[in-house]
Amino acid sequence: PNHYCTILHCSSTHRGQYNSIQVKLGDIFPHHMTLEVWVEAHNKLGKIESEHLKEDSGWFVKTDPPSDVKVFSERSFPTSLLINWTHRIIKERVKLTYQIRYRQNGTQNWTYVPLGDTASDIKSFRLQDLQPYQVYETQVSCKNAKEGHGYWSNWSNIVTKKTPEDRPTSKPDLWRIIAEGDGIQQVQFICKDPVLANGRIIRFNIKIQDPKDKVKNGSLEWKNITRSSQGKITDLKQIDLADQKYVGVYVTATNSVGNSPVASLFITAKAHEHAPVEELKVLPHRGQLWLEWKPPNSSKLVSEYVVEWVGSAQTDWQKEMRNTTRTAIKGHLEKFVCYNVSVYPIYHGCIGKPASKKAYLEQGAPALAPVVNLNDKPGRNQATLVWTEIPQGRRRGFITNYTIFYTSGSEVHNLTVPANTNSYTLKSLSGNTKYDTWIKASTIGGSISSFNHSFTTLKYAPGEMEFIVVGVSLGFLFIMVMTMLLCVYKKDVIKENFWPQIPDPGESTIGNWLPDYPLKAETQESGLSGISVLDVDVCDGKCVFEEDKASLPLKKDKYLSEEHSSGIGGSSCMSSPRQSVSDSDEGGDMADTTASTVQYSSVVPASSGYKGQTPNSQPQQALFSRSESTQPLLDSEENPDMLLQEASRQSPPRRPRFTDGGDPAGIAEQQELLEPLDFCPLGEDSEQDTPVDGQAADWLPAAVPPLSSYMPQLGGYRPQ
C-alpha cells in the first residue's frame, strides 16, 4: 500500500482547469477488484456529483519512479553505458514496463530508447552507439505493463557518466593563415582537435613535403607538436613559401588510445588557384551570422567548404559538406565587432580562391568620434575640412555617412558626405567671419558627434592683395607707357605748346624786299647821300632819328649793307636802341654796342600805310628802320652786291614788309614817327666821299613812287 495509490481526476467547471489528488489507501490495496470513483462539488446552495467511474483497481494506478538507478562505463566498450535499477513493486501484484532516455551533457534534446526494447521485466539496459569520451545524462520511468492500465511514473533522478576513450575517428581540423609579402608568403599552419577526438588530444604530428619529390618524401619524418593548453587552436608551424612554390601538409592527432586519420592540405601557386564561390551573402539573424552562396562552376570537384571568420583578435573556421549552400557560423561571435567572413571551396585538399564579406553580428553607435581639423589655412570664401578615420575596432558598425555642421551665428548649416570621404571643402563662406564646425559619424545603430573646431576666414583671398598691387602697378605703367608714346608721336604739338617757335632771322625773306624802282649797280655807291639810319624802339614808341641825323652819318658802303639787310619789324620790348654799325671812327658813342648784337634795318616809306590802304599821289621817300637780333646775318645781307643785282630784276617795285610778326599798332606808331622825316645827308666822318650835286642828281631818281602794298609772306618763319 505504501508503493502505489489511486489517482482521482476531477474537473472544476468554474476554473476550467484539471486537478488531481493522490489517495493513499493504507496497507491493503484492492488488487484485482473493481473500483467506483466519482467527485462531488459543494457550495452554500448545494452540491453536484461527477460521472462515476467503474474500472479495475489497476486502471487507476500510477507507480513511483524506479529507485537506485546506476550507470557504468566499460573500457572495452567505449561507445556504450550500462544502466541498472531495482523494482519498487513485486511483479505478482503489478507487472511493470520501463522507459529510458539519455542525452549528451550540455544539450537539450533527449534520445528515447524504443519501448519494445524495454517491454520485458528487466532491471538493466546497455546504451549503445554512444560517442567515446562523452558525458551522458540518463533517466528511467515505469508504469503498469497491462495495456490500457495505469500511468507513467515520474522520471528518476538524472545520472551522469562519461564513456571511455577511444582512438580518434575523424581527421584533425587543419587550416592555414597566409601573410602576403614581396614574392614571399608567410604561411602559418594551425589546427583544431578532430570533431570525433574520442578522448583528450595529447599532441599533433605534422609533415611538410613537396608532392613532386617522391624520393625525398619517403624519408621525411613526422614532427610532434604538443597541443596548446591555452585554447582549442594549436599553432603547428610557420614557413616562408615562394608564390610559385607548391607544398603539401599532413597532420594527425594523437590521444591516449591512438592516432587519428591523416588530414592533408595543399598550398598551390597563385596562378593555379581554383574558382571561388559566387554571390556570397552574410546577414545577421536572431543572434547568428547566416551565410548563403552559390557553388562554383566546377562544383563537382569540390569536396567541402571552409567558412572562415576573422575578428579583431580572433580567427576561427568551420567546415561544411560539399552540398551545403547555406549555413550559420557556429563559433562564438561578439556584438559590435566587425568580422571578415570568407568561404573557401576545397578541391580535394587544394584551396580555391575565397569570396569575402564584412559583417557585424549587431551594430551600435561608434565608440569614438572623428577629430576635425583644417587642411592648411582657410581662404576668404572657402575652407577645407579634414577629419580622422575612426579605427576599425571603435566603429561598432558600418559608417553609413558623415554629416558636416558649420555655423557663423544662429543659423546652422549641414551637409552629408559619403562614408568613404575624410575631407570636404566648404564654399560660399563669408570673408573675415568666425565659423564653428563639427562632424557627426553615423551607423545604422546610432551616431556620434565630434568636438567643435573654430576658424576665421580671411579678409582678403590669397593673392588678392598681390593682384590689386600688380593691377595698380600695371595700370600706372600702362599710363606711363601711353604718355611716353603720346610724347613721341605728338612731340611737335607738345613742342609748340611748351616751347613756341621763335622767328629765325636766318630764314627771313627781308633780303628780297626792295624799293619800288630798281637801283643801278654803278650808281648805288654815290646815290644814297640823302639817307640816314634810324634806330626805333617799337615798345616805347620813341624815335631817336633826330639824334642819329646829327651824330651818326653813314658811309656809303655800310649804308648799302644796311639798306639791303633784313629786319624783324620791331625789337623786343626789353631791348634798347642800338646803333646800326660799330665803327672805330665813331668814338665812345658806340661803346655800348656788344659784339654779339647784329643790327638789322628795314626799309620804311616816309609816309606809309598798312596793306590795303590807298597810297598818296605824292611821291614818297623811303626810310630805314632798324631792329636788333642776336641771329647771324643772311647771305644776302653779307653780300649787298648780290642783293642789288637781284633787286634790279624785281618788277614792279614793292613796299617793304615786317617779317617778325610785330604788333600792327606798334608798326603804325613807328610809321607815324617816320612820316615827317626826310632822308638825311651822310655825315662828315663817313668813309665815302660826299658826292657832288651832279652825281647825286644822276644817281637818285627824281621821285620815289609809293609802294602799293606789303610783299606777301610765303611761308612764315622757319623753325630755328
Characterise the protein shown here.
- The structure is a single chain.
- Residues 1-16, 519-628, 650-710 and 713-717 have low confidence and may be disordered.
- The chain is elongated.
- Strands 23, 24, 26, 27 and 28 form a five-stranded antiparallel β-sheet that branches. Strands 31, 32, 34, 35 and 36 form a five-stranded antiparallel β-sheet that branches. A four-stranded antiparallel β-sheet has the order 10-9-12-13, with no helix packed on it.
- The N and C termini lie far apart (167 Å).
- It contains ten helices and 39 strands.
- The protein has 720 residues and is mainly beta.
Summarize the structure.
Its main location: membrane. This protein is 12% helix and 33% strand.
Radius of gyration: 72 Å
CA-to-CA gap between the ends? 167 Å
Number of helices: 10
What summary fits the major beta sheet? 5 strands, antiparallel
The average pLDDT score comes to 74
Counting copies of identical and different chains, the oligomeric state is: single chain
Shape: elongated
**Estimated helix fraction:** 10-25%
